[in-house]
Amino acid sequence: MCVIKIEMTLSEENYLKSIFHLEKKYVRGVSTNALAEEMETKASSVTDMIKKLSEKNLVNYKKYQGVKLSEKGNSIAVQIIRKHRLWEYFLVEKLDFNWDEVHDIAEQLEHIKSDELISKLDKFLEYPKRDPHGDPIPDAEGNFANLEKKILAEFNEGDQGICVGVKDSSAAFLQYLDRNKIKLGKSITILEKEQFDGSMILKMNNKELTISKVAANNIYLKPVALD
Amino acid sequence: MCVIKIEMTLSEENYLKSIFHLEKKYVRGVSTNALAEEMETKASSVTDMIKKLSEKNLVNYKKYQGVKLSEKGNSIAVQIIRKHRLWEYFLVEKLDFNWDEVHDIAEQLEHIKSDELISKLDKFLEYPKRDPHGDPIPDAEGNFANLEKKILAEFNEGDQGICVGVKDSSAAFLQYLDRNKIKLGKSITILEKEQFDGSMILKMNNKELTISKVAANNIYLKPVALD
DNA sequence: TATTATTTTTAGACAAATCTAAAAATTTGT
DNA sequence: ACAAATTTTTAGATTTGTCTAAAAATAATA
């Protein structure tokens, strides 16, 4: 097991995390501009930082060809995400924050440096598998437990599922879900799917609820097999 | 109530905290050199930073005359200390850290910016009054509850007290206390005080224990009135 | 395939926090 | 009280992460 500790600045950690998230969209390399937008900075700053990360062998980079995380970079990014999600779980489950309030605080807490802290926090929280938004919390080795889930908008009339996550974790969307009593764990049945605009009429809590396609595109359900 | 939020860098916060602690020793103004030593930096760097803090009206400073915290600077320092001590309490009481392991982690956690976080943490911990080393945790308004306490070395033969704090919180000293089973809350009776070197023979846990003057100078007892 | 348009990189500058070396002010000792 | 020692400040340089503006490379389009 390789336990070489690398000195990482806050900014470097944030870049690795952003690259990690963008790699899902940009499989063949994350572009400078995409990263600049994600980091809310300028492309020139991104180029500079990428060179630095490349010299540390945390990313693979060739001029004009975007970046990918190296194995080392990936595992550091995963550990940051682990910390972020564990802290989010702590904030909601122990400190009684709402799920729309925890992102910015976890964004700070994720940079606290202490392996012992995270391992003890994990134990204290009894090894949670998902954060308050349904995203998987990787274990100490960096393994994600992956739960079967599908975007609600892809379900058809008559289908049923359990709400297990959200794609958009913005406060605005989470508050919209709160107002409509949509929570993780809720059972949802698709009653109607409007061809015209993709909106859906759902049954949840024994009530009917109409949601737009935009909303349906940001909710994950675990399909329930019907007999 | 003045609720103006001031943007503070990590370094600025650490300077305020150090000045706060040094003000106990240097009542008539903290010298540049003392601060440089505390901050493990050079006097020239201290001068630069002090000018910056002075422009923000967080310290009162006149060339060659040391610094004192302004009212605003003091209240910021107290809030940082509040955060530090609450986090230390959390680490020991909830995450099961030993009292000699928490300082460096709390040193990082104290800079997390969120009033809501601290108020909810305080509630979760049920408003603790003392950190794991016996130091008082100021409340949200910055008030310290002060407990009667005296340095063990100043007690005399026959005196009795309850261990309520330590002056030196270094890991080395705390581990020494652990090895000798000295904990906060323990009842201690002074059996003998050696004139020659100031060492003391104590009775604790119904056993006798000899400690040096150096150790006795770093333990606080709350005196117990004897009848 | 030229010619635009876009993306990315380079070059040079800036602010924050630090450093070294030297100058200025203060304190100490005789 | 004045020279020596100490402390403190200034001046100028460095590093990190950022910026703007311009140049270079790539992609898109007619």
From TrEMBL, chains A, B:
For this UniProt entry, the molecular function terms from Gene Ontology, in alphabetical order, are:
DNA binding; DNA-binding transcription factor activity; protein dimerization activity; transition metal ion binding
Function, in words? In the presence of manganese, represses expression of mntH and mntS. Up-regulates expression of mntP.
UniProt lists the family membership as follows: Belongs to the DtxR/MntR family.
Its taxonomic path starts at: Bacteria, Pseudomonadati, Bacteroidota, Flavobacteriia, Flavobacteriales
The reply to whether Transcription regulation figures as a keyword in the UniProt entry is: yes
* Protein name from the UniProt record: Transcriptional regulator MntR
UniProtKB keywords: DNA-binding, Transcription, Transcription regulation
* Domain HTH dtxR-type: start-end pairs: 8-70
